[in-house]
Fold this sequence. Notes:
By secondary structure, the protein is mainly alpha-helical. It contains five helices and four strands, in the order ββαββαααα. α1 packs antiparallel against α4. It is flat, with a radius of gyration of 20 Å.
Amino acid sequence: QVARLEEKLGQHSSDTAQINLVDCRVPAANLIGEEGEGYRIALSALEGGRIGIAAQAVGMARSALEVAIAYAKEREAFGTAIFNHQAVSFRLADCATRLEAARQLIWHAASLRDAGLPCLKEAAMAKLLATETAEAVCSAAIQTLGGYGYVNDFPLERIYRDVRVCQIYEGTSDVQKILISRAL
């Protein structure tokens, strides 16, 4: 039964709820793997989840970057599009570069997983880099739009709120660092 729905900062398109399993019995035939292997199986499932969340974060950040680039090429200041000001174009170039690096790391982790190879470290690296990059890119996109980036008229404030949780679920950034450091 649903105990309660959580009210969240972002990701309003997806409910988060506490559930109670009351008088819940699962037949032995539905056991996944062997008894005592649950932790290993759960960790294996988390690899795919981490890769997926990394991809989700990059997708959201790419949307934010596209909004910022379009705005910067249209908005004029001092007689030219603000994109032509080095501070703005370099900020956006940094964002694009960091996003591409995260995307490549996601592809690498996903290709290892698809091949059935170990990818715990690579999945953790992809999630760490992608989610932290996504938040930074969203922040830079908001900065590029100035006050407009902070209001509901543009999608950046929603994307920024939605991307924040990506550093939390399927293991926080600190958990990803623990996994990576153990694999070194």
